[in-house]
């Protein structure tokens, strides 16, 4: 059967990549698997990934999803490779550590945008102040088409096999959130990118764009920014844990705080002000149920003897989930290695 394969990749734009995609029609006997999907190429000079003299970049398929938006179609998440087969410098997925026992839950916030402003904002001025929009119901809080879009996005994600766990209306008017869970840094981030792709594509027909900027309304107003909290747990955190181990993790995160902020999304200084349920960008803090800390410790974590998952609240909505999950896993691995050395010395 002829199958429409939508090859999806990240371009070379700074400070945050855009999603790109194009369609290839391929005939398969039966349902294709990832191994059946061919490598393809594109013009990197049009995506800030090559100059015109040698513009070929290669698309290596790395994950395959049913495409619920079209008949006989699949979504093909790709890594970008150089002609010699090595990862392109913009290929963040290739460079991160991975571990299927490291679990990630991303809370992607975003604004629906129409005519250059959040959906539901009047042409001049502002809607009523924040208060009732978060998890709100009713036309005055969510408007007319937002819920149709959000509901359709849920169904698209589920039909694509994405582990979308929930959605909610957020604090600002026109602002929403969806949550994606995945095992392994690559798989979890692949699913976030595909969920973003499906949302952007869905909204085309509504004349609506998704604004992923962490502070689209600027810092001068009292409107919330958008984050992408990253909840994480490793096997050791879930099965062993303990207060001493937790303290060692937090020391490692503190030591690495600048390295984390470096990959937690652009313009985060506009968002991480210490106001609006955020921590200050230049400090590392943690606390039980504390939504003003860099890392929030869920109550369940303490009740279970410092076992379970933690929430890093600093990553923002425009961040690259590959880099975010990769950095978190790297810092945990460094803490594990330092502890192993300590234990060897003590023994
Ligand atoms: P809140 O808005 O209160 O911060 P959400 O319910 O929006 O929390 O998101 C919680 C996230 O935590 C979900 O994405 C979920 O998948 C994730 N999560 C739950 N358990 C784990 C775990 N053991 N490891 C990693 N992530 C987890
Ligand atoms: Mn949430
Ligand atoms: Mn939220
Ligand atoms: Mn959260």
CATH architecture descriptor name of the largest domain: 2-Layer Sandwich
The radius of gyration is 21 Å
- Low-confidence parts: none
Largest sheet: 9 strands, mixed
What is the end-to-end distance?
A: 63 Å
Oligomer: single chain
Count of folded domains = 2
Total number of helices: 10
User: Which topology of the largest domain does CATH recognise?
Assistant: Creatine Kinase, Chain A, domain 2
Strand content: 25-35%
CATH class type of the largest domain: Alpha Beta
Number of strands: 14
CATH superfamily of the largest domain: Glutamine synthetase/guanido kinase, catalytic domain
Shape: globular
**Would you tell me the overall average pLDDT?**
97
Provide a descriptive summary of the structure in words.
This protein folds into two domains: 2-95, Ubiquitin-like (UB roll) (Roll); 103-343, Glutamine synthetase/guanido kinase, catalytic domain (Creatine Kinase, Chain A, domain 2). The protein has 347 residues and is of the alpha+beta class. A hairpin with a 2-residue loop joins strand 6 and strand 7 (117-118). It is built from ten helices and 14 strands. The model has no long low-confidence stretch (mean pLDDT 97). Bound molecules: adenosine-5'-diphosphate and manganese (II) ion (MN) (3 copies).
SSE arrangement:
Layout: E1 2-10, E2 19-27, E3 40-43, E4 56-66, E5 73-81, H1 92-95, E6 103-114, E7 117-118, H2 139-142, H3 146-159, E8 164-169, E9 175-183, H4 185-204, E10 209-211, E11 228-233, H5 235-239, H6 243-255, H7 257-262, H8 268-271, E12 286-288, E13 295-297, H9 299-303, E14 310-312, H10 321-346
Parallel strand pairs: 1-5, 12-13
Antiparallel strand pairs: 1-2, 3-4, 4-5, 6-7, 6-9, 6-10, 6-11, 8-9, 11-14, 13-14
Helix pairs in contact: 3-4, 4-10, 6-10
